[in-house]
Amino acid sequence: MIRFLIGFDRVSEFKFLNTSSKVSFSVIIPFRNESESLPQLLASIKGLNYPLKHVEFIFVDDDSTDNSVSIITKYVKGLEDSTKSNIRILKNVRAFASPKKDAIQTAIQHAAHEWIITTDADCSLPKNWLQCYNAYIQKHEVIMIAGPVSYHKGSSFLSILQYIEFHTLQTVTIGSFGIENAIMCNGANLAYTKSAFSSVNGFQDNNTIASGDDVFLFEKMYRLDKKKVHFLKSEAALVTTLPEKNWKGFIEQRVRWASKSSHYKNSFTKLVGLLVVLGNLGFVTGFLLTIFQVFTLQFLLVIFVLKATADFLLYQKFNRFFTREQKPSFYIISSFVYPFVSTFILILTVFSGYTWKDRHFMK
């Protein structure tokens, strides 16, 4: 954890100036039944500060059964004629066992520009998002750029639990770049070149795994040339997304995330994952042994304080840099509950599949 904290500070903050808008982007947004989220995304697209001649938005419909397509269509009709062609809706062409990888593959085949950026339909994009990427690409020789992601604020305990967990993971992500052993990224804010995507054969070799459109591609790009895979540490590039609304959705999502971990190629990534599992499992075991009076309460408190302090330092590091809300009053409760939730998810990951967008997938 100390290494990740040091690594976070080693990744330089990127402050872009008034760089000329030269880079063209194809922004890919797969969606399935996102009628509630799309209006917010479309509003943020409308507010982007970037010349429309240098960007296209490709929405890929993955067999939506709600009115998602009509929402996008209505939005396009309200645009000026000169800008309508910048937004397209494609039908997903299924080829793999992963609908989302299929959607990205479909869009890349129709993309007009060299630089691809993926995001999700439940995201909001900051106004200088593309300007920030544009400036970074002109300043650095890169083939892939991982961007920061945060959750929208929520008031429920579940949303706060996700807020704390997700921001802790973001610190680990950025910190891993700082120690030159990057372990993950997030497909809600990820940019790469079409040529690099082609060089690593896209999603080939992991197309039988439903999720992992971001991490597995990232691992391949990192092996191709790690010096050209960077993290864009800038508030101007911070994409916000929605937490899961209920416990069922949260657990399904985390089981999906955990299910792909056994397929990681990077041994350091696996080691970090194992340490996290052992940390949570160790606390749960210690709690049970305390109940049966094998451990003393004082010993359990020492374990809890050590773990909670390490996690809090990671959580706070991200929030301070990106000026996110701290929510310290809920942190202690979340720190106690999370190991039990994590252990439950681990058990489900071993013995069951998961549901994603109303489809069931096996591990």
From TrEMBL:
<feature type="transmembrane region" description="Helical">
    <location>
        <begin position="271"/>
        <end position="291"/>
    </location>
</feature>
<feature type="transmembrane region" description="Helical">
    <location>
        <begin position="336"/>
        <end position="356"/>
    </location>
</feature>
<comment type="similarity">
    <text>Belongs to the glycosyltransferase 2 family. WaaE/KdtX subfamily.</text>
</comment>
<dbReference type="InterPro" id="IPR029044">
    <property type="entry name" value="Nucleotide-diphossugar_trans"/>
</dbReference>
<keyword id="KW-0328">Glycosyltransferase</keyword>
<protein>
    <submittedName>
        <fullName>Glycosyltransferase</fullName>
        <ecNumber>2.4.-.-</ecNumber>
    </submittedName>
</protein>
<feature type="domain" description="Glycosyltransferase 2-like">
    <location>
        <begin position="26"/>
        <end position="196"/>
    </location>
</feature>
<keyword id="KW-1133">Transmembrane helix</keyword>
<feature type="transmembrane region" description="Helical">
    <location>
        <begin position="297"/>
        <end position="315"/>
    </location>
</feature>
<dbReference type="Pfam" id="PF00535">
    <property type="entry name" value="Glycos_transf_2"/>
</dbReference>
<keyword id="KW-0472">Membrane</keyword>
<dbReference type="InterPro" id="IPR001173">
    <property type="entry name" value="Glyco_trans_2-like"/>
</dbReference>
<keyword id="KW-0812">Transmembrane</keyword>
<dbReference type="GO" id="GO:0016757">
    <property type="term" value="F:glycosyltransferase activity"/>
</dbReference>
<keyword id="KW-0808">Transferase</keyword>
